[in-house]
Design brief:
The chain is elongated, with a radius of gyration of 30 Å. The protein is an alpha/beta fold. A hairpin with a 5-residue loop joins strand 20 (453-457) and strand 21. The chain has an eight-stranded parallel β-barrel, surrounded by six helices. It has a seven-stranded mixed beta barrel with strand order 15-19-18-17-16-20-21. Helix content is 37%, strand content 20%.
């Protein structure tokens, strides 16, 4: 093909060509040249250059009018909207210069010939010269047009792309970022369409979009063409892939969430608009739109792309990608790539942690974007024409948002939408603005009303809530880089997998206690025996189990898959740091409250001392349920490759019980010592202390459960308000029990940690444990900084008293029991 003045083929482009063809087109060319040989599929095409855009403005005579309309920056929102509409209309109506039009004709016909289709279907994408910079994305501001056929339709789409440089959001964004309106030019990419209208498409980020955690690839997917995902018109499926073990050849799709996928964008019938949205049938909404093999392929490609851009830029470069699957050929393609611009610009090690101090019943729930809490009056806005009603500091509530909404989004205290997922327009813009958002609520515009005072909380995990009124909350600013690390390992107690990704960024040595029962109730929700024997369930329960297990081959498959996802998310978030998972420790009354659980659980007078922990695991009435727990752990370690996962046995009354549990685990394929598997035992019963030498023979370590240990040493029911004042972990007897355990375990060469509540509530108790030589202390996240400082002071005191500071980690016993016994019931901290 003869050299063109206004046209460049993708394969001739690279990242050095951003001034010529914009960030998007330059990136497409870069991938075709550098990454296609590595197996990354990218559709071919050509670019209409940025100079062609400038040429069009000059030759059409539009530039002078544009400068006039854009000259006043002290305009109202209404004036901005009107000027934007005028400019866009002016540009679409103008004629392309003949020589530019002729080059577009030739390039399109050559492309059609290459693909063997006279009326070749193409995607027409805007690509601004200031777009996809590491510090400013401009993402979603300019338009994309899909299923464009023929040169006349293509030329109109090119002009509409040129015009989209003057949407309200684009105008506002350039002014906010300090770019002159005529310093930014627009190139247009013409790309072979991928027939994802017959399959699925979506967005990929090479980090967790809410926390910036770099250890994950997040893939979203929905049926049909990808614009619905980008624009937030649907709530897509979501998949998290762990990078570290993916690189080792494992299949670590550690978390997947089914989206509602309300709409499917498809090719329209001839004679209509090129694309149309149609509702998705219920069966398709209830199944994932992307197979796991495809998720893993996309994740591998995403990592290759990230590695290439990081190397070429000389710094870590998380990526924001768009992908599509061709329903005719089954092939996957990357159709766009740009740098991620929110978390990559944040200072590492600094955190602001929000704590909601009051509780309420949620008015609506949705996917939490960000981790902040905000308050304000609700303003329900149904269309861009109404945005003049919005006042600064209000909570914006809408069906979904698009670039036209940006002028008011930056004024909002929070944003709440009916539709959309974590990669929707509302989610991307809210992150960029630092505004908390809830997306995909389903009913916010109908459930909330104008002027209603609400609290929007994104600080409670993956699910965000809107509460009535102004609930009390506080914030804590943390700079982890200024906090020294103690010699004692500081770990975290983590209950919710969806909070683990964010919590893993706090300065810790791993998870000292992950409670399987929390994963059980939050991610599974059904008694394991009810899943194994659904035929035994009454008529009012069986439909609920059928609904939950839809798409799975059996109830057992559902249980293992969901439990493995929750556990896998915990282990992946903290990888390669150790994560100690305690097998389920529900009491019988708590098991009975699970769906289908009532008929399998006995009525006990005192469930706290009844059929719980180890005694269940080998018992004929629960063993098959425990084997499902074992299967989930086995999947996390062997399929996901997360061998940093250790397990712990709770409420193990005798060493003989411990041996029986290990035998059942062996039966299920989990063997202590195999592939580095460590098995710990909770030290929460006096027998664990008194027979610690025998327990040390069959377990790899101990973790003190101070709540139950205190209850059983003092004979105090911790749930009884009458005797509650007697419950005190700092009591002499409890502290002696801890010292005795440390002495015996260390003599046997076994490490001891603590995962009970006491160190989180009483920093002086943590200091006592440090002085006694404990190896690790696991804390509630909100106590991490305060207690770490106390531990550092305790270690400093030991250094003064005994210069060989590391001895505390290697000596076979704690400091003398006689000294420990001098601690009064008040538990005064030794200094």
């Amino acid at each position: 093909m003869a050299m063109k003045k206004w046209i460049r083929q993708f394969e001739d482009l690279g990242m050095n060509d951003v001034p010529v063809v914009g960030g998007k087109n330059a990136s497409l060319g870069e991938m075709i040249r550098e990454l296609s040989p590595l197996g990354v599929n990218v559709p071919g095409g050509f670019a209409v250059t940025a100079e062609a855009y400038r040429y069009f403005l000059r030759e059409s005579g539009a530039e002078a009018k544009l400068r006039e309309l854009l000259g006043d920056r002290e305009r109202s929102v209404e004036t901005l909207l009107a000027n934007s509409q005028t400019i866009q209309g002016l540009l679409v109506a103008a004629e392309l210069p003949p020589d530019l039009g002729a080059e577009i004709d030739d390039a399109y016909h050559a492309m059609a010939e290459r693909y063997g289709r006279e009326d070749l279907d193409v995607a027409v994408r805007s690509s601004a010269t200031a777009e996809d910079l590491p510090t400013a994305s401009f993402a979603g501001q300019q338009e994309t047009y899909l299923n464009i056929r023929g040169v006349d339709a293509l030329k109109t789409a090119v002009k509409r792309c040129f015009a989209s440089l003057f949407t309200p959001r684009s105008i506002n964004y350039r002014e906010d970022m300090g770019f002159g309106h005529f310093d930014v030019a627009l190139s247009v990419g013409v790309q072979k369409m991928v027939r994802s209208d017959l399959a699925s498409s979506g967005v990929i980020f090479t980090l967790d979009t809410e926390t910036g955690h770099r250890g994950f690839v997040m893939v979203t997917s929905s049926w049909g063409l990808g614009e619905n995902v980008v624009q937030g018109k649907v709530t897509p499926d979501q998949f998290y892939v762990h990078k570290g073990t993916l690189a080792e050849g494992f299949r670590p799709v550690v978390w997947k969430k089914l989206g509602t996928k309300e709409l499917r964008m498809v090719y329209a019938a001839e004679g209509r608009e090129p694309t149309v949205n149609e509702p998705v049938a219920d069966p398709d909404r209830r199944r994932f739109s992307l197979a796991e093999d495809d998720v893993l392929t996309l994740a591998r490609w995403a990592v290759r792309i990230e590695e290439h851009y990081s190397k070429s830029r000389g710094s870590d470069s998380p990526m924001d990608l768009e992908w599509a699957k061709d329903g005719e050929t089954g092939e996957l393609f990357i159709v766009q790539a740009r740098p991620e611009t929110v978390h990559s610009q944040r200072t590492a090690g600094r955190f602001k942690v929000f704590h909601l101090k009051e509780q309420g019943s949620p008015l609506v729930t949705g996917a939490a974007i960000g981790d902040a809490i905000a308050q304000g009056k609700v303003r329900v806005i149904h269309s861009p024409e109404e945005i003049g009603r919005f006042q600064e500091g209000e909570v914006l509530v809408a069906v979904n948002t698009d670039p036209d909404w940006e002028p008011i989004m930056k004024k909002a205290a929070a944003i709440v939408t009916d539709h959309g997922g974590r990669t929707s327009h509302a989610a991307i813009v809210s992150r960029e603005l630092g505004v908390p958002a809830l997306v995909g609520t389903g009913n916010a515009t109908s459930a909330l009303r104008d002027e209603q005072e609400v609290t929007v909380s994104c600080a409670e995990g993956d699910t965000g809530n809107v509460y009535e009124g102004s609930l009390a909350f506080d914030t804590e600013e943390i700079d982890a880089s200024t906090l020294p690390r103690p010699r004692t390992k500081i770990m975290l107690n983590v209950a919710q997998p969806d909070k683990a990704i964010g919590l893993s960024l706090l300065p810790s040595d791993g998870i000292g206690l992950a409670r399987m029962e929390f994963v059980f109730s939050g991610w599974v929700g059904v008694h394991p025996k009810a899943l194994l024997h659904p035929e035994d369930q009454p008529d009012n329960v069986r439909p609920e189990i059928e609904r939950l297990t839809e798409g799975y081959s059996s109830g057992a498959d559902y249980f293992v898959d969901k439990l493995a996802q929750g556990i896998g998310t915990l282990a992946a978030a903290f990888w390669p740091r150790p994560v100690i998972l305690r097998f389920s420790d529900f009491k019988t009354n708590e098991y009975a409250s699970l769906v289908g659980g009532a008929q399998y659980e006995p009525q006990e007078e005192n469930p706290m001392l009844g059929w719980r922990g180890a005694s269940r695991y080998y018992h004929k009435d629960y063993k098959e349920g425990f084997l499902l727990e074992v299967a989930a752990v086995k999947r996390v370690r062997e399929v996901f490759g997360l061998t940093n996962l250790k397990v712990m046995i709770p409420f193990c009354r005798t060493p003989d019980e411990g041996g029986k549990v290990l035998a059942v685990m062996h039966e299920g394929g989990l063997v202590r010592g195999e592939n580095g598997l460590e098995v710990y035992v909770m030290a929460e019963i006096p027998s664990n202390v008194l027979a610690a030498d025998e327990f040390a023979m069959i377990f790899d370590g101990f973790s003190i459960g101070s709540n139950d240990l205190t209850q059983l040493v003092l004979g105090v029911d911790r749930d009884s308000a009458t005797v509650a004042p007697l419950f005190d972990e700092r009591n002499t007897a409890v502290k002696r029990a801890c010292s005795m355990l440390l002495h015996t375990a260390h003599a046997a060469g076994r490490p001891v940690g603590i995962c009970g509540q006491a160190p989180s509530d009483y920093p002086d108790f943590a200091a006592f444990l440090v002085e006694e030589g404990i190896q690790s202390i696991s804390l509630n996240p909100d106590a991490l900084i305060r207690t770490t400082r106390e531990i550092l002071r305790a270690e400093a005191g030991l250094d003064v008293e005994k210069p060989a500071s590391d001895a505390m980690h290697t000596r076979p016993q704690g400091r003398g029991r006689e000294e420990s016994s001098r601690q009064g019931a008040e538990g005064e901290r030794r200094t």
